[in-house]
Amino acid sequence: MTASYLVTGGAGFIGSHLTDALLARGDRVVALDSLSTGRLANLDHAGGHPQCRFVQGSVLDELVVDELVHECDVVVHLAAAVGVKLIVEHPLRSLTTNIRGSEIMIEAAHRYRRKILLASTSEIYGRNSAESLHEGSDRILGSPTVSRWAYSTAKALDETLAYAYHKERGLPTVVVRLFNTVGPRQSAAYGMVIPRLARQAVAGGALTVYGDGNQRRCFCHVGDVVRGLLGVLDHPKAVGDVFNLGSAEEISIMDLAHRIVARAESSAKVELIPYEQAYEPGFEDMYRRRPDTTKVRNLIGWAPTRTLDDILDEVIAEARLEMALGADAPT
Ligand code: UDP
Predict the structure, then answer these.
(1) Can you tell me which atom of ligand 1 is nearest the CA of 207?
(2) On the chain, which terminus has fewer CB atoms closer than 10 Å, C or N?
(3) Closest Cα to atom 23, ligand 1: which residue?
């Protein structure tokens, strides 16, 4: 049976891929996006589709949200201020969008009894660098004066609100914690490492590796993430629960930079940049962040299908195309 979905952040990186996938299976989509970080070009594939409607607006606009939630069956709330660079540079706007925006979405979903999926983040685990993080792992945070921990707190608060609405009001909520998600359409403008390094490699300048490059991450293809989102959205037993979604293939950022140089057949150098220069004084990075995805595998049989090399080849190809069209490499 098909349904209509409200996708907030629908013109964003993950939102636009989710929109494509929903349309491909016959569902209807209303994509709400303020276009502050989303791009209309991301919906080029979906734009002319008769089952897709784009609405430019903010999740902070209660009237718009009320109307759109009312007309849809399911809400997928992806709109958020994301990207460590953006959050560090605009802490106030990020907090308002993430806290108040989610509250408005959850309240509207409750008003009309709509199922809501809330996108959370691996940032909520803070500096916990355990071998692998499961959904019950502790949050380990520094001072709230550090923007990164404030962002982590905001997203955790969103989750808490969703759990409370589920428990006390019976709202059908699903929370998904996204780990590093990458692939085509991810902008290089908000600090994410793979789109940045791929564009730097293609341009032939220096690849900017922050800190000592020993920090480790796992990168999951957006196509796999979207399949996971749909899987938990469709599964009745996911309601009221939280799931990690991400790859467990781990790599240090220094090795990642060299891998990108090799795959792009680039002559670019790799350069170390101190964190305080890249972000701000007092910036703290996570040493490692690797998900345990046993829970989502047990529920829907989910596992990533694309390797890091698949991802890099796609992102490098996109970077080449952008360069051919005249875009600058990020500095
Ligand atoms: N990073 C880097 N060079 C860049 C951008 C990011 O070395 O040009 C590092 C960043 O400091 C972090 C890792 O790459 O250690 C992943 O950064 P990203 O912002 O993509 O995701 P995060 O895991 O920090 O949310």
Answers:
(1) 8
(2) N
(3) 180
